[in-house]
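Troubleshooting: if your tokenizer reports a length mismatch, compare your output against this known-good record of 116 residues.
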Amino acid sequence: QVQLVESGGGSVHLGGSLRLSCAGSGFSFDRYMIIWYRQAPGKERELVAGISSDGGNKNYADSVKGRFTISRDNAKNTVYLQMNALKPEDTALYFCRVNVGWRDYWGQGTQVTVSS
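Known-good structure output:
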């Protein structure tokens, strides 16, 4: 079955960096757009970045432009989110999502905590 597994979260200080990974299985990974979201306590889920199936098109939330970079390695069935210059407001649970057969699949999330 379709499965997404996020990893790479952790606790860093202001200005630090992390690289998140989203590994997919159970579907033809190189045919699908993957999107990263985040959700902080008490806030709505927010789209962070998305990448097309071949990696040629990427988009970002205004709040992360210039600091985050999304990429993918289809040979490894993995999408990455490189996060630099992290701020306390980036603290959230980060999820990836794929839509396969008109159904959304989500990973379990990976926690990112940025302290000042």
